[in-house]
Amino acid sequence: MLLSSIDQMPSSSLARYLDGEFWEIKDAFRDAISKSDLFQSSCYERTLDQNRDLTADRLYHILRQPVMKEHLKNQLKEKQKGFINKSMSITEVVCAADMNTGVKLGVVCGLYGGAVNNLGSPEQKIKFYLPVSELQFTGMFAMTERGHGSNVRGIITEARYDQPTQEFIIHTPSEDAHKMYIGNAMKGNFAAVFAQLIINGESQGPHCFVVPIRDENGVMWPGVTVSDMKHKEGLHGVDNGILIFDNVRIPRENLLGKFGSVSADGLYSSPALRGNRFNAMLAALTPTRLGLTVQAMAAMKLGLIIAVCYSHSRRQFGPKDQEEVKIMEHQTQNLRLMPHLSAALALTFTSRYAADLMDDALCKGEDLQSNRALQALVAGLKAYSTWANVACLQDCRECTGGMGFMMENRIPSLKCDSDVFVTFEGDNMVMLQVVVRELLTQYTKQMGNNLVMGLIRNLTSSASDSLRTSFLGFSVDKVGDLMFLLKAVRYRERVLQRSLASRLYTKVDKNKEEFFMAWNSCLHHVITLAMAHIHRVTLEQFALAVQDCQIKEDRALLSKFCLLHGTSLVYQERAWYLEHKYLTPTTSRQIRSQLLELCRSVKDDALKVVDDFNIPSCCIQAPIAGIANPRAEWAFYPKPEYPSSTQPLSKL
Amino acid sequence: MLLSSIDQMPSSSLARYLDGEFWEIKDAFRDAISKSDLFQSSCYERTLDQNRDLTADRLYHILRQPVMKEHLKNQLKEKQKGFINKSMSITEVVCAADMNTGVKLGVVCGLYGGAVNNLGSPEQKIKFYLPVSELQFTGMFAMTERGHGSNVRGIITEARYDQPTQEFIIHTPSEDAHKMYIGNAMKGNFAAVFAQLIINGESQGPHCFVVPIRDENGVMWPGVTVSDMKHKEGLHGVDNGILIFDNVRIPRENLLGKFGSVSADGLYSSPALRGNRFNAMLAALTPTRLGLTVQAMAAMKLGLIIAVCYSHSRRQFGPKDQEEVKIMEHQTQNLRLMPHLSAALALTFTSRYAADLMDDALCKGEDLQSNRALQALVAGLKAYSTWANVACLQDCRECTGGMGFMMENRIPSLKCDSDVFVTFEGDNMVMLQVVVRELLTQYTKQMGNNLVMGLIRNLTSSASDSLRTSFLGFSVDKVGDLMFLLKAVRYRERVLQRSLASRLYTKVDKNKEEFFMAWNSCLHHVITLAMAHIHRVTLEQFALAVQDCQIKEDRALLSKFCLLHGTSLVYQERAWYLEHKYLTPTTSRQIRSQLLELCRSVKDDALKVVDDFNIPSCCIQAPIAGIANPRAEWAFYPKPEYPSSTQPLSKL
């Protein structure tokens, strides 16, 4: 098998800037992937078992990399500077190479590893995780049950303490307690299982236990049954299964006891209040949730590289009796692709910002759970990014026509593999409700104890009216100013927050409606606010990243995409702005013209940007993006060059 | 293998109404499919060859049905009453059973059959199509080339007349002339090939030729090469390939000569002007284009059956200390699903209307090409319906969470199989341009010869201002009135049309911009107008169907969904209405409240509607929709009953 040539060109300044502080780690993984036979070829005729075996081989290859081994060792320690950022860098590069491997890495190191390292004692880390870094075994993460996916608090798997033997008895009381969709279920050796801890018949709420599933020879632990869920839309290399426990006995030491432990004689103790305990455990998974944003972003970048390159090679239609134009010149083509490209850039900077916040908090020894802004950001980013990815890949598929439907051109498998991101590890609709819960709680804390009243006071007393006034100072031609866009998205978030608080207050406090019912009747409002929050943060972070960029040309280029991102966000919600008279009919139309004009003006720059995503050609694969493939010569289009020669259309 | 029980219940009045005039044909196919072993099981471990063989077997099973044989015989005759409507009925039922079979049926009977029967002589029909109805051979349709997919007018395959032998020499002059994505390429025997007819070195434009590809033993015709394009995102049972012709000789009689024929001594004659000829040929494919709308609609209905049933079984979250609520009760869940359901109903009536128009025209011996309104409708419906389907299935997938990602629950394969509809047989972006071209031409014809000026005259002299006035007569509470919604969508179409005409006039006539450049700079406007046109027609046709419904209860139910469809259309475009001051901020908010309220109010009725789609359980397959599957017991949820017991939330 022929190894694809590793890109020898030194990275451009923009590529380095997009890679961020840990570019060396990324380069090390790019190199390892480009040099490995395992990542060179794609094949669409593998059986499920062959796909799973290949994914396992790829996972081990990644785990064997020296830089990875060192990283995993660091995971066992506390307060490792930049640990989250490094993890995200690795995640992005591995996911770009193969989403299956990335997801499986996330299960083994992020979820199982996250549970053991964040909820376990030093001894437990050494016993249950150190061997993972030494490739002795792998783990899985068993939280979701058949009856409770989104509402995980309602899980019913039991863990009864049996004092005479000092063991926990893990048990599945009903079909609805089956642990479902468990990744690595058919291959992993240990599971981090969430179950209701019961001592002397009394429940202490959900806790996490390490349960042996099978030994290195595949012999099952007594009482454990695993069944295979087999075929999915994508991620064929990830083995998802169902775990059923029939009075499975595990030693008392297998309870991961950071937020609740049981003494030999059956006494329960916990540093956390009962209501907070489960949230505190879930907070340990915050980095994994951010990982999903990075995974979605990797898929977006790949799709965009392929669609942008092809759009600059393929020609169709044109002025009479002249050469046909590149399809990128078609107004609708650049209008569909460029906003996604700006969103991918916004996500690059915003996910790094979130990782920085987490790294800072962890280094200071702060717990992540009580950082409401961070929790809101990470939950919201998960929803925003995974939906942005679905929309982006769909447009990439459509913008590449029949070529984009062919497996050899990579987009179909990216779509199928990443589609599940919008519902797994926290359904997006649930994530957005988390955002608003965190935002409301944050303000309540600042303002006193009454959730709703606190929020209203905060809002009315603060900036909303002055914001409104400051808007009135804008002249019409300021619509093209980034400050105008930033103020617009901030204004929208504030107003949505105030009106939601007011509605909830009326329903719950005044009309005494049941809370769930009241909340549910505002759910569309809740979701809208959550998205507005994330939109605002992505635009702010993009703007800051532009400001921080030291190379003048790069800053100029990023600045255009940042303006496009903001314009696109305001354009999407222009109905709301018109309803609130923040935009006039005239300025609203200006926003549309501005969007069309910006998409047109960055379409050639897009080639530089996708090039600077710096993804090795063995990961891109698509012949329509200039990666030759002897199996699909019919799909080959040479890679377009940047800067492209000026097209007559560019002057339109 | 166990045959699934055929639904013995007599159809409800609504089911009959949704089925339409040709319900007996639909029932005959439902019965044939339900009774056949071939359609009972799904399997996700087949190789490409196995998938293709199964699809071929299924196709033959369908072709062998007595009612199908009769239908195909009728295809050879002219002016068969209801032929198009019957074809659409068959297409819908077959596609619901298996999209691969439906697409392959479309290739063999719709495209190849359409070409032979509409462009050929009686003798050619008997020679090249009668045997298809007798299962002696199958055909394929070779228009698209590597270099020209959307812009088919630019195809470069050559057909040179060789007078000494009285043969045409079909030749592929370059790689860009390869006939690509050809369905049935690996199995079919004859191809309807579009090529530039060249006589004595002079080109007469594209014509269609029947070219033998391989005989019944698989022996290739001299000079023909076929290569396999293999793996796609979906439609794994459809064999797409590449055809290459190396000076392939075919008899003179193989030119399908309705719009241009060649005498033995090389004299060309045509009843059509050169500029119109190719369009006239393409018009023969109008029914196939409508078929795509029906295929997309079948996929939508299946997705909705599954998502609606599961949403009424699955429970998650709820009021404190009470049973969790059905996920359908979540505001965002019914908000996401119900508009798709109303769109599926709108498409049911609108596609039937389009088929009626075609049947009428064909019975009267009118040609379809010059019926501009019909061409605009069919092209627009293709784009609208296939995008509606992609959006619908994506929401169905997300609304069914992890279950919806599992192959056993059917949604993933529906998504992957129907995704290509948005770009094949006319990319949607191209289709929408066709809509506007037809609309503009239609008005130009009415108004005199100057395209743009005619249009402007037509518009300014007519209804736009009175429309505006009539709006001002509406009081605010009329937003909930269907008439308000109908007037709104009509107003929007007119205004968009007038403003587009005015822009084109300024650019082309006044500023002398090159036409393609001018058109391209208005492309977003063009697309917007085309969608507005189709929105308007779907709402009108839905409203008419409500009016025509004879059973009071059914009419009442359809009326709610019709109002929802109109509300959803206006809600989507409320920014435009606000920009044009057709909605005030207050009425715009009312539209949103109305949308939320309508979605809530029809969520239980949705169960009756999806039941009345009348799709056999062997086609639905999904265990989460109550179809038991021993292979995936973990996915089974019993079918919810209608009318569901009143939920407390329904009173919200």
What does this entry show, briefly?
Helix content of chain A is 56%, strand content 9%.
Secondary structure blueprint with pairings:
Two copies of one chain form a homodimer.
Chain A lengths: L12 H7 L3 H13 L12 H17 L1 H11 L6 H15 L1 H21 L2 H7 L1 H4 L5 E4 L15 E5 L4 E5 L7 E5 L6 E10 L2 E11 L11 E5 L11 E6 L2 E4 L9 E2 L5 E2 L4 H10 L2 H26 L19 H33 L8 H28 L1 H5 L5 H8 L9 H20 L3 H11 L2 H9 L9 H29 L4 H7 L1 H26 L3 H21 L1 H6 L5 H18 L2 H8 L4 H4 L32
Parallel strand pairs in A: 1-5, 2-5
Antiparallel strand pairs in A: 2-3, 3-9, 4-8, 5-6, 7-8, 10-11
Helix pairs in contact in A: 2-5, 3-6, 4-5, 5-6, 5-10, 5-11, 6-10, 10-11, 10-12, 10-14, 10-24, 11-12, 11-20, 11-21, 11-23, 12-14, 12-15, 12-20, 15-16, 15-20, 16-18, 17-18, 18-20, 18-21, 20-21, 21-23
Q: What does this 3D model show about the protein?
A:
The structure is a homodimer of 652-residue chains. With 652 residues, chain A is α+β, with helices and mostly antiparallel strands. Chain A has 25 helices and 11 strands. Chain A has helices spanning 13-19, 23-35, 48-64, 66-76, 83-97, 99-119, 122-128, 130-133, 274-283, 286-311, 331-363, 372-399, 401-405, 411-418, 428-447, 451-461, 464-472, 482-510, 515-521, 523-548, 552-572, 574-579, 585-602, 605-612, 617-620, and strands at 139-142, 158-162, 167-171, 179-183, 190-199, 202-212, 224-228, 240-245, 248-251, 261-262, 268-269. In chain A, the strands form 3 sheets. In chain A, strands 1, 2, 3, 5, 6 and 9 form a 6-stranded mixed sheet that branches. In chain A, α2 packs parallel to α5 (83-97) and α21 (552-572) packs across α23. At the A-B interface, α11, α12, α13, α14 and α19 of A face α11, α12, α13, α14 and α19 of B.
